[in-house]
From TrEMBL:
The record marks R28, K35 as: Transition state stabilizer. This is 2-C-methyl-D-erythritol 4-phosphate cytidylyltransferase. It catalyses: 2-C-methyl-D-erythritol 4-phosphate + CTP + H(+) = 4-CDP-2-C-methyl-D-erythritol + diphosphate. The gene is ispD. GO terms for molecular function: nucleotidyltransferase activity. It comes from the Bacteria. Its EC number is 2.7.7.60. Pathway: Isoprenoid biosynthesis; isopentenyl diphosphate biosynthesis via DXP pathway; isopentenyl diphosphate from 1-deoxy-D-xylulose 5-phosphate: step 2/6.
Length: 237
């Protein structure tokens, strides 16, 4: 299994970029507004996430935030209300996560370096796992953070279901970090329904290297996630 915690970089100090995708509508949350704008401990989810990438030690040169095209004014208002001074560029998303990432990449232009793609609704990504993913991408070009399942896993079959060997399975999180040229080439190919993340877009072009994620790095998807995320955030402050 190609997992590691501390690879030795071949191209240390490559320029770093980040695309925070927050172009979704949050249908599973059912909150009446996109979940990236809901509050955790009194601040929008997306602001928490943005702050994670603003840590100076991470050396991120530019952050692109992808938003639904009809929500620019909402974010503008939140930026004012919460006095957000973290530099970032706003880009309109698309109809799918794939389309939103593609738009973010296009806006980034053609610099060389490493780009992290991160869900705007994963506000609990620690500096350690972000750094681990960026650093590993200097060696492996395509890196995802992931954790081992804690529950037993079954595959549905025509008759009943059967157990999977969970020691061979990983639950994939973001950030996912890529050599920029590689990610650009992958996003020039047509979109497939099997694309659930960026690794699935890239995997035909390059092996995907896995580094240790964090069980706390949850994705805000359904209402109970807000309760857990608030408790975790409090414990991390
Ligand atoms: N067209 C889309 C769809 C999703 N995303 C982003 O991709 C991340 C993961 O997606 P998901 O949790 O599925 O978000 P939503 O699409 O908003 O949720 P749902 O599927 O419940 O509607 C989120 O940060 C979301 O904003 C995006 O940028 N553009
Ligand atoms: C990208 C992702 O967060 C990795 O776990 C996940 O695939 C997004 O899935 P969703 O169905 O768009 O929430």
């Amino acid at each position: 299994m190609n997992e590691s915690k501390s690879p030795s970089p071949q191209h240390p100090k490559a320029p770093r970029y980040a695309i925070l995708v927050a172009g979704g509508s949050g249908t599973r949350m059912g909150a009446g507004r996109p979940k990236q704008f809901l509050e955790l401990l009194g601040e929008p989810v997306l602001l928490h996430t943005l702050r994670r990438f603003a840590e100076a030690a991470l050396r991120v040169q530019e952050v692109i935030v992808v938003l639904p095209a009809d929500q620019f004014a909402t974010w503008e208002q939140l930026r004012t209300d919460f006095r957000v001074t973290i530099p970032h560029r706003i880009v309109a998303g698309g109809d799918s996560r794939w389309a939103s990432v593609r738009n973010g990449l296009a806006a980034l232009g053609t610099p060389e370096g490493i780009v992290a793609v991160h869900d705007g609704v994963r506000p609990l990504a620690s500096q350690e796992i972000i750094e681990r993913a960026y650093a590993a991408a200097e060696t492996y070009k395509a890196v995802v953070v992931a954790v081992t399942p804690k529950d037993s896993v079954r595959n549905l079959a025509q008759r009943g279901s059967y157990a999977l060997n969970r020691s061979r399975l990983r639950l994939v999180q973001t950030p996912q970090c890529f050599d920029l040229d590689l990610l650009r080439r992958a996003y020039q190919l047509p979109e497939l329904p099997t694309f659930t993340d960026d690794a699935s877009v890239v995997e035909d072009l390059c092996p995907i290297h896995i580094v240790e994620g964090d069980y706390r790095n949850l994705k805000i998807t359904t209402p109970e996630d807000l309760i857990v995320a608030e408790a975790l955030l409090r414990s991390m402050q």
